[in-house]
Amino acid sequence: MKEMVKKGIMIVAGSLILSLGINFFLIPDHVLDGGIIGIGMIANYIWGMKVGLTIICFSIPIFTLAWFHFRMYFYNSLHGLLVSSFSIDVLQGLRAYHLPLDPAVSSIIGGALVGGGIGLMLRHHTSTGGTDLLAQMIADWMKVNVGFVILAIDAVIIGAGGLLFSMETLLLSAITILSVGLVTMTFTSSRLLPEHPAS
Asked: Exposed e or buried b for every residue in 25-48, given b needs 16+ CB within 10 A?
């Protein structure tokens, strides 16, 4: 019970930190994060869709894969997905209070907060779902650091986003995912995630 309470606290704390980075630093400057979050941001910029709701929708295929092959990851990530997605949409009002920082600085700070939120949850064997969940499965299969896998997936997403928007968006987003990846690896490198056999 104590472990469950601790994990719950980390999910809420990580989700709030991540949501702060997205809503207060990244979205106001039209910057992308990678992965499912980045897809949610692209949907928001183009169609005005809610980022959190889009994340949930695009996470369904990944959670389906986890259900059949990594059941423990499915259970560990479901709460993180729901809480973080809900937090992102609830805290969207923070965008109106964005500080007039240089976009590059906002990208670094926002990325660090997103990486910190993700890393905090990964250290306690949970995640936000989406490509974080996919990265956990890939890292387990390939025996590599999960932060490195997240960085690689993120690069693909922001590359696609850069084609849709501008070179400035691409460069700022690259700064963001580097910040996310470095902070995530800092949180996860000192503690290996456990292996879970397929079920």
From this structure: bbbbbbbbbbbbbbbbbbbbbeee
Token pair 């976009």 in the structure block, residue = 103
Give the residue extent of every domain in the chain. 2-95+102-188
Q: Using alpha carbons only, what angle is made at residue 22 by residues 17 and 25, rounded to the nearest 5 degrees?
A: 100
In this prediction the pTM is: 0.85
Cα 62 from Cα 129, distance rounded (Å): 8
Q: How many CB atoms lie within 10 A of CB 83?
A: 22
**Alpha carbon distance 30, 173 (integer Å):** 9
Above 80 in pLDDT, residue 60?
yes
| Helix residue ranges per DSSP H, 21-166 | 35-47, 51-69, 71-90, 103-123, 130-142, 146-164
- pLDDT at position 34 over 80: yes
Query: What's the distance, CA 160 to chain centroid?
Result: 17
Which helix (H) or strand (E) covers residue 127, if one does? Answer: none
Q: At what angle do helices 130-142 and 51-69 cross, to 10 degrees?
A: 30
Q: How far apart are CA 112 and CA 130, in angstroms?
A: 19
